[in-house]
Design goal:
There is one protein chain. By secondary structure, the protein is mainly beta. 7% of the residues lie in helices and 50% in strands. The protein has a single domain, classed as Pnp Oxidase, Chain A, CATH 2.30.110. It is built from 1 helix and 9 strands, in the order E-E-E-E-E-E-H-E-E-E. It has a 7-stranded antiparallel beta sheet with strand order 2-1-7-8-9-6-3. Strands 4-5 form a two-stranded antiparallel ribbon. It is globular, with a radius of gyration of 19 Å. The relative contact order is 0.22.
């Protein structure tokens, strides 16, 4: 039986403009990873009884919620990293380890682009950031953590 993993173990990294791998886990409160595929339906002329599905275009999305954090300057922290990626329409490498960085746990890697980026500043609560990244090129690779 596979061990159950608490969501707090998840880790995520994002490359900045200089291709440095930055861990953003400390500012994230929720992650949702969705992979999908658009499978077109097809049939042949005169074949009224069989509908075939052809493997279609794949997509992947990572959605995040987190704490607004600048670490003292607007250019630092998760907000600076996201501002840089969003305003420059940059493709960044994202790495997501849903079960943490324990040896043998899965690690998903993809080249993604920030699709939306929202700030929330409620009067009675903490300032937050929500953003999503979608597959920009290639595909998602899955591997196991080895170190």
């Amino acid at each position: 039986m596979m061990a159950q993993i608490h969501g707090s173990k998840a880790r995520v990294w994002m490359d900045d403009q200089a291709a440095a791998c930055i861990e953003i886990t400390a500012d994230i409160t929720e992650i949702s990873f969705t992979r999908s595929r658009s499978d077109p339906e097809t049939t042949t002329l005169g074949d009224n009884s069989v509908q075939r599905e052809v493997a279609g275009i794949r997509d992947a999305t990572l959605e995040f919620s987190g704490i607004w954090n600048t670490y003292g300057t607007p250019a630092s922290g998760i907000v600076g990293l996201l501002d840089e990626a969003y305003s420059g329409s940059l493709t960044s490498r994202f790495q997501y380890a849903p079960a943490g960085s324990t040896v043998g746990c899965p690690l998903y890697t993809a080249s993604m682009m920030i699709q939306n980026f929202a700030h929330r500043s409620p009067v009675g609560g903490i300032a937050t950031v929500n953003f999503s990244a979608a597959l920009a090129s290639g595909s998602v690779t899955a591997a196991c953590i080895t170190v």
